[in-house]
């Protein structure tokens, strides 16, 4: 039994990575938004390095948040529409691991690229040198929580036809703590070269989220079928 | 032919404040082929979804091998195949990749390549499903019937979009399943020329007014 559990998990990972690989444009969508939105800021505000550096942590974090929001709706949508979700729900595989696999793939396809992209955008915003490592590490943990929290929203709004607005309304308030701690991690790293506390909080949120969110998502997915 | 597989015990289903059927009681045994009949909107699909475990029944209980489904859910999931209106086939994956995914979920008796050959999709293994025709697409889903040795088949309109030879093939497959002691529940608007077919008329269980008092 152990083996087939792992087998099922791996087959889900494999399948979702394949789907992602066949829809490369969907993958680019949040990244392009992230890059465009951040690169517009210096154009709008003028190239004053001091002013930009002051705004950099907040702006990069806000844009990463919005970019992740963009990618959420697709998380379960195609499975819902082509009937795969029905099959997943009644299959003998434990739903918990299926949901975990889906979230993992989603994070690898959105959160991870956003994190890897962020130093470049930091440079665009003339982020001070001390800010790069905190920016990346806070985004690494933060995007993980975004996927977990966003998954709940995506699953809850699955049966609503035009779910974009509803999804944002549910998810954005829950993102606020992430934004506060994430942006402040970068800011305090620049000002006082200390950011462990904020990272610890972000890490705790991601840990709690990865334990609890799949259960909430499981419940929401079941409701979507009624 | 007397092994009782499924017992439906006073099932009721309510949709949008309308009671579709109530007190639906039936005993389904190994080797049965049951066609569920009723006009559009009578609740045929709803009944199949309830039996498959996708939606809860408004009232009543389903027993599998004498045990309530709430307790034997896992066992039941191993032993049934549900094929709904939505095929559950990913369009961006190839036919083979789709079947391999199904194969990883349940214990398998045929390998996916053979299963595809059996439904007449030899040579289409590596074609992505969005390039297949509607009938071929449906056949990818039907290939699942070859894949596992599930005892219970729950088929919602399995003949949709399938050509004549495909219909014959599926009828033959169902007959085979029947003779091996499997239970098939299906909805279809066609009359099936299969001996021993039983009918479950949903209008027999329709509450008189159709509206809850």
Polypeptide structure, described:
- The complex is a heterodimer of chains A (226) and B (213).
- Chain A is an all-alpha fold and 226 residues long.
- Chain A has one domain.
- In chain A, 86% of the residues lie in helices and 0% in strands.
- Chain A is built from ten helices and no strands.
- In chain A, helix 3 runs antiparallel to helix 7.
- The mean pLDDT of chain A is 90.
- The model of chain B has no long low-confidence stretch (mean pLDDT 86).
- Chain B has helices spanning 44-52, 69-79, 95-105, 112-118, 134-142, 144-147, 164-179, and strands spanning 4-15, 18-29, 33-37, 59-64, 67-68, 80-83, 152-156, 183-187, 197-201.
- Chain B has a single domain, classed as Rossmann fold (3-Layer(aba) Sandwich), CATH 3.40.50.300.
- In chain B, strand 1 and strand 2 form a beta hairpin.
- Helix content of chain B is 31%, strand content 26%.
- In chain B, the strands form two sheets. Chain B has a five-stranded parallel beta sheet with strand order 6-7-8-3-9, sandwiched between helices.
- Chain B is an alpha/beta fold.
- The interface between A and B is medium-sized, with 26 and 30 residues.
Q: What is the topology?
A:
The complex is a heterodimer of chains A (226) and B (213).
Chain A lengths: L1 H21 L1 H22 L3 H24 L1 H9 L1 H7 L4 H15 L1 H14 L7 H25 L7 H29 L3 H29 L2
Helix pairs in contact in A: 1-6, 2-3, 2-7, 3-7, 3-8, 3-9, 6-10, 7-8, 8-9, 8-10, 9-10
Chain B lengths: L3 E12 L2 E12 L3 E5 L6 H9 L6 E6 L2 E2 H11 E4 L11 H11 L6 H7 L15 H9 L1 H4 L4 E5 L7 H16 L3 E5 L9 E5 L12
Parallel strand pairs in B: 3-8, 3-9, 6-7, 7-8
Antiparallel strand pairs in B: 1-2, 1-4, 4-5
Number of strands of chain A: 0
Report mean pLDDT of chain B, rounded to a whole number. Answer: 86
- Would you identify the regions of chain A where 5 or more consecutive residues have pLDDT less than 50? none
Estimated share of beta-strand residues of chain A: under 5%
Total domains of chain A: 1
Report the span from N to C terminus of chain A. 30 Å
Largest inter-chain contact set: A-B, 26 and 30 residues
CATH class identity of chain B: Alpha Beta
Number of helices of chain B: 7
Q: Which overall shape of chain A is indicated by the principal axes computed on the Cα atoms?
A: elongated
> What is the CATH topology of chain B?
Rossmann fold
Give Rg of chain B in angstroms.
17 Å
Tell me the Rg of chain A in angstroms.
18 Å
Strands side by side in the biggest sheet of chain B: 6-7-8-3-9
In percent, how helical is the residue content of chain B? 25-40%
Largest sheet of chain B: 5 strands, parallel
CATH homologous superfamily classification of chain B = P-loop containing nucleotide triphosphate hydrolases
């Amino acid at each position: 039994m152990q083996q087939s559990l792992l087998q099922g998990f791996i087959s889900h990972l494999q399948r979702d990575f394949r789907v992602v690989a066949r829809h490369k444009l969907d993958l680019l969508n949040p990244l392009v938004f992230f890059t465009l939105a951040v690169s517009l800021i210096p154009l709008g505000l003028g190239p004053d390095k001091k002013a930009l550096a002051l705004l950099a942590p907040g702006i990069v974090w806000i844009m990463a948040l919005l970019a992740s929001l963009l990618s959420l709706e697709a998380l379960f949508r195609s499975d819902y529409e082509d009937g795969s979700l029905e099959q997943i729900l009644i299959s003998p595989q434990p739903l918990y691991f299926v949901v975990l696999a889906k979230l993992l793939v989603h994070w690898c396809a959105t959160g991870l690229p956003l994190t890897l992209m962020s130093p470049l955008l930091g440079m665009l915003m003339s982020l001070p040198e001390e800010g790069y490592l905190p920016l990346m590490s806070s985004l690494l943990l933060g995007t993980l929580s975004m996927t977990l929290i966003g998954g709940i929203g995506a699953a809850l709004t699955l049966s609503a036809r035009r779910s974009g607005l509803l999804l944002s309304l549910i998810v954005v308030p829950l993102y606020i703590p992430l934004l506060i701690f994430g942006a402040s991690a970068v800011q305090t790293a620049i000002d006082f070269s200390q950011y462990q506390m904020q990272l610890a909080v972000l890490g705790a949120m991601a840990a709690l989220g990865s334990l609890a969110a799949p259960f909430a998502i499981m419940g929401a997915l079941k409701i979507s079928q009624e | 032919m007397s092994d009782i597989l499924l017992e439906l015990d006073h099932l009721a289903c309510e949709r949008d404040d309308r009671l579709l059927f109530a007190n639906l009681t039936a005993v389904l045994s190994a080797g049965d082929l049951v066609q569920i009949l009723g006009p559009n909107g009578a609740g045929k699909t709803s009944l199949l979804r309830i039996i498959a475990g996708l939606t809860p029944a408004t009232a009543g209980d389903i027993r599998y091998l004498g045990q309530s489904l709430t307790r034997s859910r896992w066992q039941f999931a191993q032993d049934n195949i549900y094929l709904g209106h939505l095929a559950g086939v990913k369009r961006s994956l190839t036919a083979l990749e789709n079947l391999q995914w199904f194969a990883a979920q349940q214990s398998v008796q045929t390998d996916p390549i053979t299963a595809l050959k059996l439904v007449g999709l030899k040579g289409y293994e590596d074609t992505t499903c969005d390039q297949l025709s509607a009938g071929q697409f449906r056949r990818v889903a039907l290939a699942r019937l070859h894949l596992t040795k599930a005892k219970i088949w729950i088929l919602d309109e399995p003949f949709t979009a399938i050509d004549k030879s495909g219909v014959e093939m599926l009828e033959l497959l169902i007959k085979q399943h029947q003779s091996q002691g499997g239970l098939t529940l299906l909805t279809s608007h066609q009359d099936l020329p299969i001996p021993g077919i039983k009918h479950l008329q949903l209008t027999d269980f329709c509450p008189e007014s159709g509206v809850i008092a």
